[in-house]
Write a structure and sequence with these properties.
It contains 12 helices and 2 strands; from the N terminus they run H-H-H-H-H-H-E-E-H-H-H-H-H-H. With about 270 residues, it is mostly helical. The chain has one domain: Fic-like fold. The chain has a two-stranded antiparallel ribbon with strand order 1-2.
Length: about 270
């Protein structure tokens, strides 16, 4: 196993994100992550590097939510000016703009709300774009089964305050690449469990994971195809979220390791675009 030192964070007081699985995560992760990331930087793309990978992120994050769009069509729409009916591409175009937005903005709660407003422009009424819900919420899968029950509305604000205090702390803490992937996935998981918006939470959670990776590893982390990996392992994705429990309190984050491993383990076999 690689000899990268794992930080003990003796002086870092995380509130909702935890390092309790970090040693297990590191021990079970692929060796030599940096060469895998460098390989991504050298990949040749037929169009602008960042636009290309943003389009992949957009399509597969949309497909997870059941959107009827395929990558070949979206590539032609985005890069070859092929015209489709507006209803076919407008939600994906909104999400694409949100992925562009994270390049120019720091990862903060206010900017996350703005990103949600962008990606939900054709998903929610204006009054709900970027707005925290004040009603009960649960997530139903394609088999009409409840996947999980979100945080009750009266605890959303304090839970978000804890989460984004942790994010700010982690962004200002030196992290090695194993820690970076670990915390990016953990933030995704906590965010999606809180489920603060009326809709668009999954899209935003995956955007948030990518945003954290870019913040710590640089913009070439755009090429990490976490969205495509989640789509290609969709049943596992939902199963691993469900492992923590059905109700928000009490979630058991001791069971989070299978979810946290999904993105970093996907680097072993480079996804085909």
């Amino acid at each position: 196993m690689t000899s990268f030192k794992v930080c003990t964070f003796a002086n870092m007081k995380l509130q909702i994100v935890s390092n309790h699985l970090l040693d297990d995560f590191t021990a079970s992760s692929p060796e030599e992550i940096l060469p895998l990331l460098k390989q991504m930087e050298l990949e040749k793309t037929p169009v602008d590097y960042f636009a290309f990978y943003n389009s992949i992120s957009t399509v597969y994050s949309s497909k997870i939510e059941g959107e009827n769009i395929d990558y070949d069509s979206y590539f032609k729409h985005r890069f070859l000016n092929v015209e489709y009916q507006p209803d076919y591409t407008k939600k994906a175009d909104d999400l694409y703009l949100a992925y562009e937005y994270i390049f120019q903005h720091q990862l903060t709660f206010q900017h996350v709300k703005t990103a949600h407003s962008i990606l939900s422009a054709n998903l929610l009424p204006r009054s709900q774009q970027g707005k925290i819900r004040n009603n009960p919420m649960f997530v139903i899968n394609n088999e009409s089964r409840i996947e999980y029950v979100a945080a009750e509305s009266h605890i959303i604000d304090p839970e978000l305050a804890r989460l984004f205090a942790d994010i700010e702390l982690l962004l200002n803490q030196p992290l090695n690449e194993y820690e970076t992937f670990y915390y990016a996935s953990y933030i995704h998981l906590v965010f999606v469990k809180i489920h603060l918006f009326q809709d668009g939470n999954g899209r935003t959670a995956r955007l948030l994971e990518k945003w954290f990776l870019i913040s710590k590893l640089g913009i070439n982390a755009t090429a990490i195809q976490l969205e495509k990996n989640y789509f290609e392992h969709l049943q596992e994705y939902y199963k691993n979220i469900r492992l923590l429990g059905l109700e928000y309190p009490p979630l058991d984050y001791n069971k989070a390791l299978p979810f946290l491993q999904m993105t970093i383990k996907s680097l072993i076999s480079k996804p085909e675009s």
